Amino acid sequence: MSTIETGKVHERRALRFENFAGVRRDLDALHAGISAGTFRTSGNWSAAQVFNHLAAFMEYPFDGYPPEIARPPWFIRFLSKFMRRRMCFGRMPSGVKIPRVNGGTVGFEDSPVDAAEARLRAAIDRLDREAPTRPSPLFGPMSHEEWKGLNLRHCELHLSFVHPK
Fold first, then answer.
1. What is d(CA 46, CA 1) in angstroms, rounded to the nearest whole number?
2. Is residue 46 in a domain?
3. Is residue 3 in some structural domain?
4. Structural domain of 118
5. Between the CA of residue 55 and those of 5, 23, 70, 108, 126, what are the distances in Å?
6. Helix (H) or strand (E) holding 163
7. Rg from Cα positions in the chain
């Protein structure tokens, strides 16, 4: 199976989440599409892989980062200082791969979609109510609002590839 260069995918949903209630509403619509068998994806991952990836990146600042991403190369850490505000409150670019990480990222394992959705909802609830305890490997210590913003942007990016109908 060939992979799609996701940075060039034009068939994506335009999403903007102001808070996690918006993400939950979108997950409700996706759940209905998945249940009805009308959903589809326009990227390389299944809906379960998208949900697991988003959940994993919400869990890491609480539970610890996998070694592959715990210490990014110095030049990535340096450049990220200039992108922090954009990544938390602007738009995340698609098609970005983490250097020296097999597959370009982590946390996108496949599983039953219902389990992945439940994991994502639990991660959202946790991040919505409490601030992470570990600093970001890219941005260092972050406020709760920055963590929320970063993860809302991450949800916009990846959920844009999952279509309810």
1. 14
2. yes
3. no
4. 16-163
5. 23, 12, 17, 9, 10
6. strand 162-163
7. 15
